[in-house]
Amino acid sequence: MVKTRTPPSAGAPASSPPSPPPARNPGLPLELDWVEDVRVNLSAVERRAATLGTRRSVKKEWQAAWLLRAIACMDLTTLAGDDTEGRVRRLCAKARQPVRADILEALGMGERDFSVAAVCVYHRFVATAVDALSGSGIPVAAVSTAFPHGLAPFETRLAEIRASVAAGAREIDVVVTREHVLTGDWTALYDEVRAFRDACGPVHLKTILATGELRTLRNVYRASLVAMMAGADFIKTSTGKESVNATLPVGLTMVRALREYGERTGVKIGFKPAGGIRTAKDALVWLILMKEEAGDAWLRPELFRFGASSLLADIERQLEHHVTGRYSAFHRHPLA
Hints:
Blueprint lengths: L1 E2 L4 H4 L20 H5 L5 H10 L4 E2 L2 H13 L1 E4 L7 H12 L4 H6 L11 E5 L3 H7 L7 E5 L9 H14 L3 E5 L2 H5 L3 H15 L3 E5 L8 H13 L4 E3 L11 H18 L4 E3 L7 H14 L12 E3 L2 H14 L12
Parallel strand pairs: 1-2, 3-4, 3-10, 4-5, 5-6, 6-7, 7-8, 8-9
Helix pairs in contact: 3-12, 4-13, 4-14, 8-10, 10-11, 11-12, 12-13
């Protein structure tokens, strides 16, 4: 197994609150020929995905640096039916201080401002999160458009986006109508995402494809292209509520789609895997995927996010082990 030394972009976590995302994706007119020409070799994708966690590894201080990078790219999330304002405020406190001060001090990070990339909540709690994060520079992301199913009336979904923007959300995570993908109605999907983008105004748009319900990797690639053409600033794997969420073959497919889009248009599109990423080891494999397939620019929160809740606790446990040589219980690293 080859050990990978940490590149500067992965080894130097953000020393200040997250910076604003890059310029908006202007989109382009729907190019149906491009969409229909897509082909995906399933066996080749699966073989490539299987090697990501076996050909490379990061150890010791390099692993600690990469795990700090993972935290800096994290959308700390609570999307439970029993969410309360108290839980959201506690989550926001954790977002401000995602790693215990003594661990950061031991890692040489004690003098740096260090936080997650964003906090992601339902619209109901946007104002609460905005208030709790005031002065931190950490943006609030709101899931929208009748998350997670996306089947409310169209005007209702647009109104929810506008309401979240008005409440102070700086990022909107929308869900698409899966039927458009499953029936190959790419014009309808394009028009839907374009309307969502227009409703966002200046706020950045993350488009959730719910890939576990799209049946084929070809559908995943084509839906990714259409969403980017319509102006999505990020493409996101899942709501976290599907039976199958973020998987490496799906992630590889989507990253290659955004890479192709960037090569044709010169526009960098962000990527967010969400759902089922629970361990520090998982996070490292996803970071390796981004470095090898997209490049170092995608190891920063401007272009890469983890949609995560329980992931942070395991990363903090691994960092404590790096510092002390001992593993601790999960309850020593509470979230909310």
